[in-house]
Please model this.
Amino acid sequence: MSDMPLRTLVLAGTAESRAVIHALSDEPSVQLTASLAGATPNPAGLPVPTRVGGFGGPEGLAEYCRENGVGLVIDATHPFARQITRNARAAAASLNIPCLRLERPPWHPEEGDDWRSFDSWQEMADAIPPGERVFLAGGTQSIGIFTKRQDITLWARALNVEGMEGPANTTFINAMPQLDKADERATFETHGITLLCCKNSGGNASFAKISAARDLGIPVWMLRRHVPEAGSDGDNSTENYHIHDTIDGAVAATLRIAANAVSGWPG
Ligand code: NAP
Model:
């Protein structure tokens, strides 16, 4: 037990991580540092000290935590950012400190939605009927797989595709998802999109495209989530690895862990 605030590293890069950081930034029992991978140019500012760039695998992350006296890792990274999630769990376990994973729930179809799920980008790309006008919002790793389909017309939206060369049937859109459904709808209408291909990311930040496709009756094909290694909101978490699927749950769990680690704070 210590009377110092619990040094907490938040692995960030999502809207949910920003919400957790904002909710905890004034809490006296925790002292936050945020970490960004550095993939997004000009990321939104955070109200806590922020480091940028990889750590060098699980060993590098463990070393960073040891050197900086980190007593809790909050992994609020994207559900498809699997490597950092594995690293966070392994690094925390190696130091015997808690790791709290915020895993936002996937999207679920509503009545009338024409959705299909796939286990890989390759499987998805192979299943597209010739002649489709496809909007791909799958990140840079998916693009090379889809551009091999010369019998479709492709619009590929991702970060860092500025200047990328592709076949004549491909248009690159160097952009983040649009927050407004009307903007996504206008994009799909302008290009005459007949199929949306994306990840089942969950959350609000990239839902506008799903909502726009729903309005326009455009089928949505999604890359399926990997199965989380333990249940959600604490029900199947292990002693030192806690999985939560809500921001409130993650914030409350952090404060409980801090209260246990820091003497003098109310539990
Ligand atoms: P990834 O495959 O899990 O991570 C690749 C490597 O990037 C990690 O091994 C780690 O490098 C570094 N890294 C990732 N997140 C980091 C963080 N928050 N702080 C410091 N280093 C980090 O992840 P990804 O899919 O490339 O995503 C990178 C970041 O973008 C994540 O933080 C994620 O939350 C965010 N993001 C991802 C997606 C997506 O669809 N994948 C969407 C939106 C935002 P070292 O091994 O060297 O430590």
Notes: The first strand starts at residue 6 and ends at 11. Residues 230-235 have pLDDT under 50 and may be disordered. The helical segments are 15-24, 57-67, 82-95, 121-126, 140-147, 181-191, 208-216, 247-261.
